[in-house]
């Protein structure tokens, strides 16, 4: 047997060739890509559910599907950047914070004002629908990503930006949920029956939600969120484009729904909510996807 044939026989298969070997980083990169793809699919499904709910006779029947799909998409996008454990922890903390605020709120009127939930949304724990707490977590992650895009340095300014961005969403949420009969205010207010105290309470609770998310996504470790290793050094990474997209999609869909889909339309809410969310969505989108 010639030397060339002996060398060929000694090689077990073609996979052992150096040129065919899997790159060490391929598996590590595959996980985030899969999570981002899952987030995109869940976001698309949420859009479909939202559209269907807007044109059917009983839209409240799809509220649960919309909220769950939104939250699942947000967690998947967050996990693609920060890792599954940190993303799940941040989401769970935001859900717990929102639930605690709602539980206190329906009993004391603090911090939102006196209100109560109707039996429409189920299941409920202590008079608070579980879906409401889940919504705090899903949109909390999206608003935090918007704030991270606008205030990359972090700190109190990011918490404030995120709190304002999340509260802007409630300019749509409260009028819509009142239409669907999901909750009632004991004392009505000037904005489609919503009292001013509600928005002040939203600012406070949203700030707490932003703070817990920020702390948990900045947890120390080699793969901590918001950092990436480039040429042996740590650099600040861009926030999740998927989470920013969730916020932008919600802003557009709610604006269109109130302006032209809901019966009757409410152009005041469309303008107020569209402008308020747009103040954050547009610059965050431009910074996340610069031309």
From TrEMBL:
Composition bias type Basic and acidic residues, residue spans: 1-14
Region Disordered: start and end of each range? 1-27
Alphabetical list of InterPro entries matching this protein: CruF-like (IPR007354)
Which sequence ranges are marked TM in the entry? Answer: 34-55, 61-80, 87-106, 126-147, 159-179, 199-217, 238-262, 268-285
Q: Where is the composition biased (Low complexity)?
A: 15-27
Alphabetical keyword list:
Membrane, Transmembrane, Transmembrane helix
Report the Pfam families cross-referenced here.
Answer: Caroten_synth
Full protein name: Carotenoid biosynthesis protein
Query: Which organism is this protein's natural source?
Result: Actinomadura fibrosa
């Amino acid at each position: 047997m010639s030397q060339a044939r002996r060398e060929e026989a000694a090689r077990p298969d073609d996979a052992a060739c150096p040129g065919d070997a899997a790159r060490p980083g391929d598996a590590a990169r595959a996980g985030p890509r899969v999570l981002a793809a899952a987030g995109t699919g869940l976001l698309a499904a949420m859009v479909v559910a939202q559209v269907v709910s807007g044109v059917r006779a009983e839209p409240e029947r799809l509220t649960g599907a919309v909220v769950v799909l939104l939250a699942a998409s947000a967690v998947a996008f967050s996990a693609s950047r920060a890792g599954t454990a940190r993303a799940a922890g941040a989401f769970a903390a935001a859900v717990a914070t929102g639930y605690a605020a709602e539980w206190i709120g329906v009993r004391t009127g603090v911090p939102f004002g006196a209100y109560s939930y109707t039996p429409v949304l189920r299941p409920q724990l202590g008079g608070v629908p579980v879906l409401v707490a889940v919504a705090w977590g899903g949109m909390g992650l999206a608003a935090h990503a918007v704030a991270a895009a606008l205030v990359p340095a972090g700190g109190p300014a990011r918490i404030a930006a995120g709190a304002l961005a999340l509260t802007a969403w409630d300019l749509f949420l409260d009028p819509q949920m009142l239409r669907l009969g999901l909750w009632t205010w004991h004392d009505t207010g000037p904005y489609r029956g919503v009292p001013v105290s509600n928005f002040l309470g939203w600012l406070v609770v949203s700030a707490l939600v932003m703070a817990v998310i920020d702390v948990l996504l900045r947890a120390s470790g080699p793969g901590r969120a918001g950092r990436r290793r480039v040429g042996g050094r740590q650099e600040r990474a861009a926030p999740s484009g998927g989470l920013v997209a969730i916020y932008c999609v919600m802003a557009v869909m709610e604006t269109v729904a109130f302006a032209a889909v809901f019966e009757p339309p409410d152009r005041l809410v469309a303008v107020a909510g569209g402008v308020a969310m747009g103040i954050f969505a547009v610059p965050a989108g431009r910074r996340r996807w610069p031309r």
